[in-house]
Amino acid sequence: MELRVGMDMGGMDMMDMSAQPSVWGAWTATPVVSTIMAIATVVYLYGVVRVRRAGQGWPVSRTLSWFVAMVLLVISLNSSLAAFSHHLFWAHMIVHLLMIMLVPLFLVLAQPIRLASMALGGSGEERVERFMNSAVIRWLTSPVFTVPLYTAVLILTHLTGFQQAMFEHMWIHDAELVLYLVTGYLFLLPLVGDELTGHDYSYPVRFFALLISMGPDTLVGVTLMMTGYEIAPGLAQSRMSWPKGGILNPDAMADQSAAGAIMWFAGDGLMMCLLVVLAWEWIRADGLGRGRQKSAAELQGDRRPSYLEVARRSALGTGAAGMGDADFDDDDAALAAYNARLAALNNRASYPGGRSDTTGPAASDDQRRG
């Protein structure tokens, strides 16, 4: 196993760029980032324990999403894929997609913000909600800001001299990965899942935001495939001593075209999967709007009354407009009146002309005297 201890997030030693990494054995150590990930995981699990001890539920799927995100981060930053991404454009593009789409997606599905709110409780919960509803955070997570940000990040980091600068300066490479992670998280936060945010966008808005974001993926992918010169010549130069040919040392232009194809097909494919899932949720929506951040009481208040409720309240002489004001099943007096009314109606139906049984419990004094 080949271990490389990196000073930066990417971890590759710039003095050892000529050596071909091992496909399965190369491993890049990133002590600082790995420590941050470990601490974040411990804090997340502590929050889960606190929430469950308080008697509140926390789905296992959210916890699993957190661990999937951590595994994808390890693959992006520490595996042999991370090592090859410093030499091969197509490997670098896979890391890009992991950092800007898949890792943020599973972080959003893990719902760490909601977990923090529930674990803190009381005033802590109120502070979290106020923070998420602040003007700055609402703007930073609004598609009005995040869609142009996502577009600009993809275009400016792929179709300019940024890739060559990233190859020459490791700190730019590290900043690029952070930029991708933050951009992807801000972009997906209000559009996917049920995370606690300051927004509650409708399905059409969310669908349209994801749909138009496929444009930058396509533009970058097609441009890389059609460009007739090397955008980052340093990548090919770094593997000049490697064995020629094959997927690990293709021609420079073939490598660039493969990177474009990955961005186009894989990027649009991932976005299409999100659109399909969102469309399915949209179809299953029950007419309450999105309602993803409403409480159970709010959802109950928005629910339209059933046919049985309408019939029952009509029998009691109560208008449908006030249906949400009382719970008749919990009101003994109302329930007794309801049963008596049904008995009276039943007795009237048993006699011609609407005359009721004079011995029934609902009969009036005049009826008994008659």
Automatic annotation (TrEMBL):
Record's bilayer topology term: Multi-pass membrane protein
Alphabetic keyword roster: Cell membrane, Membrane, Transmembrane, Transmembrane helix
Record has Membrane as a keyword: yes
Location in or out of the cell: Cell membrane
Record field: transmembrane: 24-46, 66-84, 90-110, 136-157, 177-193, 205-229, 261-283
Cellular component GO terms, alphabetical: plasma membrane
Region (Disordered): 348-370
UniProt name for this protein: Copper resistance protein D
Source species: Gordonia jinhuaensis
